[in-house]
Structure formats: structure tokens, C-alpha cells
Amino acid sequence: MLNAHYETLLEKLKTITDVEKALAVLDWDRETNMPEQGIAGRTRQISTLSEIAHRMFTGNELGDLLAAAENEQQDAPYDSDEASMLRNVRRDYDEQALFTPEFVRRRSEITGAAGAAWAACRQKNDFAGFRPHLEAAVALAQETAEIYGYTDEKYDALLDKYERGMKTADVRRIFDEVKTQTVPLIQAIAEHQGAIDDSVLAQDFPVAAQRAMCHYAAQSLGYDFSRGHLGEVHHPFSTSFGRNDVRITTRFAPEYAVSSLFATMHEAGHAMYEQGIAEALDGTPVGKGTSSGIHESQSRLFENQVGRSLGYWQAHFEELQRHFPSQLQGVSVEQFYRAINKVQPSLIRVEADELTYNMHIILRFELEQALINSDLKVADLPAAWREKMQQLLGVMPETDSKGVLQDIHWSMAAFGYFPTYTLGNLYAAQFMAAARQQDARIESDLARGDTGTLLAWLRDNIHRHGSKFDAPELCQRATGETLSAEPFVHYVRQKFGALYGLHNVG
Amino acid sequence: MLNAHYETLLEKLKTITDVEKALAVLDWDRETNMPEQGIAGRTRQISTLSEIAHRMFTGNELGDLLAAAENEQQDAPYDSDEASMLRNVRRDYDEQALFTPEFVRRRSEITGAAGAAWAACRQKNDFAGFRPHLEAAVALAQETAEIYGYTDEKYDALLDKYERGMKTADVRRIFDEVKTQTVPLIQAIAEHQGAIDDSVLAQDFPVAAQRAMCHYAAQSLGYDFSRGHLGEVHHPFSTSFGRNDVRITTRFAPEYAVSSLFATMHEAGHAMYEQGIAEALDGTPVGKGTSSGIHESQSRLFENQVGRSLGYWQAHFEELQRHFPSQLQGVSVEQFYRAINKVQPSLIRVEADELTYNMHIILRFELEQALINSDLKVADLPAAWREKMQQLLGVMPETDSKGVLQDIHWSMAAFGYFPTYTLGNLYAAQFMAAARQQDARIESDLARGDTGTLLAWLRDNIHRHGSKFDAPELCQRATGETLSAEPFVHYVRQKFGALYGLHNVG
Predict the structure, then answer these.
(1) How many CB atoms lie within 10 A of CB B92?
(2) Which chain A residue shows the shortest CA-CA distance from B49?
(3) A233, B227, B370, B442: which could form a disulfide with A249 (CB 3.0–4.6 Å)?
């Protein structure tokens, strides 16, 4: 009986999770199977279920239960499931109370209109048309920050939504280090452009073979198909309905070459995180990844650190050749490894390589802070964008569609999200370094394409905890250090130095 | 303001429909995409949402709203949407109040255990092992009938669940006529077995081509893919998430020959019914097919009356040959038409042809009544089954697995469901006869494989009404007559008389 209040609360919370997971199924189905005319009905169903879930979580009944459970569990150790759960629920419960229904409705109106305007304006390369919507989105984010509250700087409040416990000042310091170290490396590579020939990728790869290879690749990384499914969509994503049903998706088109494959590895990384959460946490509020950055670290780790490594392909290239015999005839594994690691500054974030990608993020992170702090006017954003692209990557977009209008995020007022992509890359490098150091078998297993020991380390140090610990604390527990740019900088210097014969950079 | 209560009620009911449709999506996803280990989580989600929907429908709030709306709408014409909706909701509301939570829980326990036992016992040909579960299911059905109530006979109460307003005595009279007329026809055909050679179907048909052909066939019948989707499953079904998202499924295996095709046509028939419901009824309690029998009439009509007709194949056989060039080389459309209409008494209901199928149903209908009326003991059921198979079809199962254990229905205590399959066949024939008589273009359009005018008639006379009218009334409105065996008997005599050269039977 010592846990009576806690157990009652937990059962109630699991019921709310059931509704949230049903919502995730409705979303998944909308992207994978829904016919075009199904959208109005689906929107109704989603809105009804969202309202039900919201009402279940925000009622006084839950507040009273929570208080009773906190009282009952006050001696639970900090890292117990009970204490971690209550910390998380208390934070969410208090947070939702900050935002009035009026504000929530207004936010959804503003972002709804901005999203539609963004899609139309990107199509027409019409920044002026999008400008008032973006101004409204910036104002909304500023208002959100004020409601949420902050001690150091306004942007902290926005970042906290996606990366709890992380401070803007820390991110800025780490990103500056990445920038300082990467820009010269990118410049040096630019002077050796001929070193890598990736023309092998510029062929048509039959979709049926891509499908089979993606299935093979996900499995080879450790994604469990008895608890998963690979769907086909326009914009790849992964989604979890509980640790025993975590779906991945990818996009197939003959001209996308092997990009469906790396998208699959990326989503499999996200999905393995969710598949690895401890059974005891399944269906509870902490039974999910802890932050956007940590989630991204798992996808980037499997897509890049493993999926674009020579060791992986030395073990699995034969399988790839079996699926694409004519496309890969006479191609060596080294040639293929070089092709999938070509570095080339480009305009579009989602098409960027492993190295230049972070420059796209740092640009957005810096512009976002300037917008939120009112140091930059929305009207001046396109010019600021072009200037930074030139500084960081040495390229400049000819149109806003290929520049400031390329991403959906700002139309959703999702300021604070972009940095988590690069945080993911940095966490991935730091986790890999720690794993290799803590278990010597990992290095040799990876060298022959076997991810088993690596996955075991991730399960034990990252996955099983779900959201019991915030990202900074999880990183400290897993690697013994706070996040730093060093492991990533070391990794890219080694990898791309070797690929491009640049042994003296930095 | 004259409709204020009604509109409030309707909005509340549509919200309940949203939850029910979300449940249908969870079901669909379970059958089409869910990984094996997802079942426990999915069962929780379904149970939580079912409880939410149940609670929304049964509260006093809805009862009060319903009473207020009835009072407000008392002058609404009988066939108005308003009056029809209120009749249906009142019936459902009063009905759910009859069954206590204790009974509902016990029912789910009994059928849950019986379902598991059935699957295991069918596998092992163990009727003795299934017997106590079936006895419990019969007792449960008898108890259900007593709670539900009836005036003439107990079985009426069970039939009413699937075929509202239909009386057992009427079904018995009509089925007796079908039996009287069909048994001699089947016997006469048995004496002409050599008349049809269906060996063309005993080949491997590549799955990819089957998939493409099923897509073509569904579309050719009038199924709207912009409001639909074809999924792949083990046991084909169709499901609706609203008139603008009605899914169909089929099963592919090389050795199933064209059976995936006829399963697709069958499910497309069900789905076109739901796609054809009036927009004003969408999302409301009457925005769905009115009874199992009427639903089955639409699937049987498109599978058999259209899909196994010479006219359809004269128009579409070339397409079929294009998909299966080697399998159908040198085969004429007449040969194919004859092959897909071969009549042969067999043991398994779901594999039966258009003519012998009804004998499987009549057998079950007669045995069900005897069980419910306690005229037959469960222990004596296998012997009774064998005897009736011999009488009706001249074949006898060597094992109970191929006899009394073949269907899942009784383990679910779904007594009263079986007759709706044959009611579907009879309604289909009566609708076809009426449609042909009322619009002369239908006959000539069908003769060239065009279902447009037929579908328009069905939309206007059947589909658009949803469940505004019970099946007997809908039949009267659409055809000017109550249901009779005559159109079906006439149809099969003509069709199979010609196929087998039996111009003097009956």
C-alpha cells in the first residue's frame, strides 16, 4: 500500500499515453496510407483525441493525485523511476497551466496561417508575402519566452522546450568552437575538390532493390523488425506507439540513389532509441527519448558514425552490390566509401553532408537569437542569411526559396529547435568516443560491421533511461563529462583529413 | 435556434464517432502494418479508447440532450435526417442501458476464452476441447436474448442485432424457398460435372501482377481511390473512417490464382456503399451501412452479379491477359467466364461457389436456431452438422476441423450473424432486378462492362441513406417489394442453367 497514490497516478498517466499513442497512429496512417480526401475527417479525429488527452492531463483530479503521490514518494531516491517520473510530470503539469486556452488557440491560429503562407511563398520565392507571418511568429515566440520565464536570456526559454536544462550560453560557446574548427577544414577541402569522385551515385537505383536494401540495412544496425515496420512516405520520419511498436519510414525514387538508405539508417537510429527504453517505463510519461538533441544523436550516430564508416561497408558492401549489380559493377568498397562522404558546401540544409551540415545550423541558431532578442528585424533577415552563408560556407543563394524560405520550422514558431540537430551530431561523437573507451570490443566489432556491442552500450547508458534524466545529466552519466565540441572536431578532422589528404589542418 | 438541441446532440455524437473512427484506424493498422510484438500495446490503446467512447455515449448528459432533441424535433418528417437519426440514437441508447457492466465484462471474458480455445481446437481437430466453451457461448446468447427481449421467438433477439427489423420466421420462409429451389439445381449440376473445365485457374499467378490487377478491378467497378486505399492482409476486410476514407484489403499468394481479385471486388462492394453515404450523414450515427445483410448485398453484387458476369469480362479480359500473359495465353473470355463460375459442392464455406454457398449458411442458420431453442445439445452438434451437409450438398467432412469447427463466429457468440450472408445474396439479386427494371441503360451498360449507371442507382436507392432506414424498409423503398427468394432463384437458374445446359431444371 506504500505506493497506492503513485500507482493510481501512473495508471491514469498510462491511460493518457494510450490516447497519445492512438494520436501517433492517426498521424502515421495519415502520412503512409491515407487517401488525399481523407484529410478533413482525420483532422477532426486528431483534434477530438488531442482535446480528450489534454482534458485528462489538465484536470484537478490529476493535480490532486500528483500532489498525493509526491507526498508519498518524497523519500524515493533521485534516480529511481518513481522520483524521475514525478519530476517530469510535475514540470509538465505546471508548465501547461502557464498557457491559457486563449493563448493556445491564438498560437495555433498564427502558426496555422504562417504554415500555409510559408508553403505558398516558398513556391513563389516571395519573402515579402511571408514577412508579416514570420513577424507574428517571432512575436509569438517572444511572448512564449516571457510566459515560460527565464533567468539569463530569453532564448533559454525556447531552447528549454526541446533541450531541457541546456543553456543558450553553453550552446553558443560549444558551437563557436565547432565553427572555429570546421570553417578552415571546409576551406581546405574546397581546395581539394577533385579528391573524391561521387559520380557512381548519379545513377538510377531501382526502387524494389532499394526497398530490400533498406530492410537489410536497418536490421544490420540492430533495428528489431518484430517490434517495427518500414513504411514509405514523402518526408521520412519515425514514430513510436510504445517500445514494442516503433515505426520507421523512408522515401524511394530511382534518382535518389542511396539517399533512401541513409534516411532509413537515420530513422532506425531514432527508432532503436525508443525500442531500447526499459520495459518498466513503457507507456509512462518518461517512456520516451529525453530531448530532441539526444534523439538526434542516436539517428546521426547510426547514419553517419556507423552508416558512413569504412568498417560498416567493408562488411556489407557485398550485399549492396547484390542488390545493385549493374550500378556497382567494378566499384570498390573504398570508392563507394569515398563517394558517400564527399564534402561540398551547398545551399540546402537537408541535402548537406556530415561536415557542412553544422554550418547550416549555426547560421540559423545565430539568426534566431538575433530575432528573438530584437537585434535583427525580420525585414533584414534575407540579407543577413546571405551574408552568413558566404562567411560560413562560401556560397550564396540566388533566391530566398533556396535561402531563408527553405525550412518549415520558423513558420511553426519552433525557435530553439534548430540547434538540437547539431547538438545531436556532437552528442553522437561524444557517445561514440566514450563507448569505444569503455568497451574495447566496440572498436573491433564496428571494424567488421557488427553493431551489437555498440548497441548494448547505448541501451545501457542512453536508451533504457527514457526521459528519466535531462540531456546534460544523461551526457554526464554516460560519458563522465559535460558536452563538448572536442570529440566531434577530433572525429571530423581524422575522417575528412584522411579522405582528403589534409594532415595538417587545424 | 429551432434546431439548437438537435445540433448540440449531433456535435456530441460526431465527437463520439471521431473516437470510434480512431478505433477503426487502430484496428486497420493492427491488421495491415503492426509488428507482432505490438499487440499488447495496441490492445491497451483499443481498450482505453473503447472505454472513452462508451463513457461518452452512456452518460446522463447524452440522455438529457437526446430527450431535449426528441422534444424539439417531434414534428420532423419520418424520413428526414433528423427523425431518422433520433430513432437510431434512441434505440442504441436504450439498448446499451439494458446490459450491465458486469454482463459486458462477463461476455468479453467468455468470448475471449472461447476464441482462443476455438483457434487451438480447430488446429487439433478437438471438438471435445471446444465443447464447454461453445456451451458457454450458447448460454450467453440465450441470456442476451432474454435481456434484449422478443415477442415471437428467442432467435429474433439475436438476429435483430445484425439485421434490425427482420424476423426469424420471415428468414426461415425465404431460406426454405432457396433450399427447395437450389438443392435440385445443385444435384443436376453434379450430374454434369464435366461441363466446366477450370484448370486454367490452377496455375501460379505472380503477386505483383495480381496487385496491379486488383487495383484496376476495384477502380473499374467504381471504387474511388482518392477516398480509398488497398491494403494487404491475411483475412480480407474493408473498413471506413468516414465516407472520404474507406479502405479495402486483399490477400496475395501465387497459388490463390484470381481469388485475390474476387476478394478485392467483394471488399470494393462493401466500400462503395460507405463511400456513397450522403455527405450530410458523414460522421453521424446513421453515417454507415444499415445492416450486415444490406452490406453483404453490396459486396456480393459487385463480386458475383457483376464480377462473375460475362459482360464484365468481355470488357476487361484483355486487361487481365495483359497482367498474366503466359497464364492466359490462348484462353478465351468464355473459357475464363466458365472457369470462375464452376459449381462444386465442398466442405468449406469461405471457399464455396456462388450457388452452393447458401447451403452452408442455411445449415448454420438451422443449427443455430436449434441450439438457441435448446432443441439441440452442443454435444450432438457435430453429428447434426454432418447429416445436414449430406442432405444439402451431398458431401460430408471427415474431420470437425473441416466441419463444425471451421468458422470463428460461434466462439464469438455471434449467433444471428450467419443468415446475413445469404440475405446479402438475396438482396443483391432483388436490387439488381429492380435496378434493371427501373433504368434500361443499366442492362446495356453492364453488358459492356460499365458499372456507372448501376452504381448511380445504388447510390440513389441504397447508399446515400446510410442507416436511416432498417433493411426491410430500405428494400421496400428501393424495390417496391419485401425481400423474396424469387429474384435470386431466377438469377441462378438462368445463369447456371445456361452454363451447365440444364434448361429444364425446376
Answers:
(1) 13
(2) A19
(3) A233
| Pairing verdict, β A228-232 and A238-240 | unpaired
Secondary structure letter of residue B402 according to DSSP: T
What residues have CB less than 8 Å from B116, skipping those under 6 apart?
A: none
Q: Say how many Å lie between the first and final Cα of chain A, rounded.
A: 62
A21 contacts B22? CB cut-off 8 A: no
Report how far residue B183's alpha carbon sits from residue B165's, in angstroms, rounded to the nearest whole number: 29
Nearest CB to B38 within list A37, A38, A245: A245
In this prediction, residue B102 has a pLDDT band, given cuts at 50, 70 and 90, of: very high
Q: Is the pLDDT of residue B484 over 80?
A: yes
* Mean per-residue pLDDT, B204-213: 94
- Inspect the interface and report whether the beta carbons of A49 and B19 lie closer than 8 Å: yes
Judge residue B1's burial from the number of C-beta atoms within 10 Å of its C-beta, 0-12 exposed, 13-18 middle, 19 or more buried.
exposed
**pLDDT of the residue at B1:** 52
To the nearest whole Å, the CA of B1 is away from the closest chain A CA by 25
**Chain A nearest C-alpha distance from B319 (Å):** 24
Q: What's the confidence (pLDDT) of residue A254?
A: 85
Categorize the per-residue pLDDT at B435 as very low, low, confident or very high, splitting at 50, 70 and 90: very high
Spell out which residues of chain B touch residue A34, defining contact as CB-CB under 8 Å: 229, 245
Mean confidence (pLDDT) of chain A: 96
Q: Say which residue the cell 435496378 belongs to.
A: B435
Contact check, Cβ <8 Å, A37/B227: yes
How confident is the model over A231-241, as a mean pLDDT? 95
Residues on B contacting A at a C-beta cutoff of 8 Å: 14-15, 18-19, 21-22, 25-26, 28-29, 32-38, 40-42, 44-45, 47-49, 52, 225-229, 231, 241-242, 244-245, 247, 282-283
- A164 has pLDDT over 80: yes
Provide the pLDDT confidence category of residue A253 given band limits of 50, 70 and 90. Answer: confident
Write out chain B residues lying below 8 Å of A11, CB-based.
none
Q: Is B14 in contact with A44 (Cβ distance < 8 A)?
A: yes
Pick left, alpha or beta for residue A353 (phi over 0 → left; psi -120 to 50 → alpha; otherwise beta): beta
Inform me whether the pLDDT recorded for B506 exceeds 60: no
* H helices, E strands: number in chain B: 20, 3
CB A28 within 8 A of CB A239: yes
Nearest to A245 among B28, B35, B244 (CB): B35
Contact between A44 and B244 using a beta-carbon 8 Å cutoff: no
Residue A267, C-alpha cell as written in the block: 530513422
Q: At what angle do helices A127-148 and A381-393 cross, to 10 degrees?
A: 90
pLDDT digits (tens, 9 = 90+) for B253-285: 887 778 999 999 999 999 999 999 999 999 999
Where are the domains positioned within chain A?
1-98
Say what percent of chain A tops pLDDT 90: 95
Q: Is A239 helix (H, G, I), strand (E, B) or coil?
A: strand
Over range A118-145, report the average pLDDT: 97
Query: What is the distance in angstroms between the Cα of A1 and the nearest Cα belonging to chain B?
Result: 25
What pLDDT score does B505 carry? 54
- Determine which of A18, A44, A51, A224 to mutate to test the interface with B (most B C-beta atoms within 10 Å): A18
Q: Is A245 exposed, middle or buried (0-12, 13-18, 19+ CB in 10 A)?
A: buried
Best residue in A16, A32, A244 for a mutation probing chain B (most B CBs within 10 Å): A244
| Alpha carbon distance A469, A82 (integer Å) | 12
Quick check: B242 and A41 CB within 8 A? Answer: yes
Show the cell assigned to B458.
445504388
Distance from C-alpha of A417 to C-alpha of B210, rounded to nearest angstrom: 46
Q: What is the 3-state secondary structure (H, E, C) of A152-165?
A: CCHHHHHHHHHCCC
What is the rounded distance in angstroms from the CA atom of residue A259 to the CA atom of residue A252? 8
Residue A1 pLDDT: 52
ipTM, two decimals: 0.92
